[in-house]
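Run log, item B.
One chain of 148 residues. Sequence copied directly from the ordering sheet:
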Amino acid sequence: MKTIGPGLEYRGAMSVHWNYIDIHIDLLRRLWPESVRLTEQFSEGAREETRRDEVTGSPYRVNLAVTTWQGKEQMTLWTDIDAAPRHIAHKSLVQRREQMVGDAVQLTFDVMHWNRINDVEDPINMPLDLTDDVEWQINAPDKDAEAA
């Protein structure tokens, strides 16, 4: 697993704010043509990094991503969830929810298409209310604990 750590050291001080990371990535993009590949690797590592909540033991993603635009260029800004101000955390979580909605819309189109071209078969019904599924997963035995 790749990790990016708690922040960025700048002039001897550790910063957990994504502003410095944004500046750093922007400079890389301008000065180093391979930076696009490195930015993708950075983002992959940031997405994958998890911790366990010290009280509940539940896993959570360490880094929150916020997609924003600077002029005509789309940027992804990252911050540590434990240090994120509410407005940044809220924006990141809303954007993740919007991605889920987009996936549900595409799933619906795919099901509708399959049902249309296979009208002699029983139609596939794909409920989109995930409330029960989420609760079951939250309350399922911990896979890591079972393996131990």
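Observations after the first pass:
- Residues 115 and 122 are 8 Å apart (CA to CA).
- The helical segments are 18-31, 35-48, 86-117, 131-139, 143-147.
Flagged for discussion on Thursday.
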